[in-house]
Amino acid sequence: MPGRLLELHVENFRSLRDVTIPLGPLTVLVGPNGVGKSNVLKVFDLLADIIRTDLEPALDARGGFDEVSFWGGSRPPTSMTIRVKAAWTTHASPSAPDEYGLTIRRRSLPHNPGSYTLSREETFAFKRTRGRGRRITIAGEEARVRDKQAAGTEEDSGSFGIQKLSSGLSTLPRLTSSDGGEEVARVAQELSAFRVFDVDVEAARAPSRVLRRRYHELSPQADNLAEFLLHLSSEDESWEDLVADARAILPQLEDIEFAAVGGSSQQVHVMLRERGLRHSTPLKDASYGTVRLLGLLALLYDPDPPAFTCIEEIDHGLHPQALTLIVERLREAAERTQFIVATHSPALVDRLRPDEFIVCDRDENGASIIPALTEQEVEAIVEESGDQPLGELWFSGVLGGDLTGDEL
After folding, report:
1. pLDDT tens for residues 194-206?
2. What is the distance between the alpha carbons of residues 259 and 275, in angstroms, rounded to a whole number?
3. Which residues contact 213 (CB under 8 A, 6 or more apart)?
4. Which of 146, 256, 306, 348 is the most interior residue, by most CB within 10 Å?
């Protein structure tokens, strides 16, 4: 089983004023528009961008600190913090997790209204052999390495220079293994493998160029759906299961086939053979829901997925009868990757367990409340209700939230 993210803590990011979110193999964020579900996903997108480009470019691409930080109140906050706990490195476990923390501080310039300077602080903590641990702290232009001894004391293992606003996520993986580079590189690798999946139906309908390579990756928008499904079709067992799932949801479907498209480059088109029709239906002529379904099934049958996948509004365009199967496949795929899914569909929530979903709400000041209820509180409400379906309890307001508002 792959390593897991265990917890996310965020302060002053968009609507996330102060939240701590436990993360399991499958975590479904449930709530109406405007409560901050998408902002949770945007935290991971920011961290991945910091790894790719560094701290300043990642902030600049989002409009700067004031656009990224908490939007409530009369003025921007003076700091923003993101912390994650995970079990990624060799000796990590849920009881002794890897930890990463980033705090960005904003200081206004008194003689230049509206202007400010930024500073950052970072910490990395890892479990090592024989009860030892390692902590790397970054502040200003210095990174310092400390080793924790078995007796609980810390020993200074040295320091080195780092550019003022460079992130350790983007620069420290170049350290030697003895200085902690191997552990930092693993954290950066896992966070950069984050993917937000949202099927672009028009792009997914189009033919895909056939690429002759060993590794095939489904794009985040599924715009290479035909090529990826062709690749999956060579995986006999999983392909048969995928087609069987599609048939179960699309009763007229008999088979999924492929047709070559002429031209200078070899391309492939998905064709749907349907009961009672003389000709197969090209995917470009299939319904919106059919294309989204095939994109999701391709994702859920991916034999080599990234470490962490987020799916916004997974139920969009799907018939409620399809959701039971989709939830079952999510649980199976969560053995290979980790999922955060956002939804406001009571029909999907009906099919979840209390440990798989987190109720999201928002207070009168615009701050997200995530989770709005603990797992134990949800279980108690379910028991008191006589085991009513979770979706009905949430939609009726018993589990909090209302179905109004716009996403911050």
Report:
1. 888 999 999 999 9
2. 19
3. none
4. 348
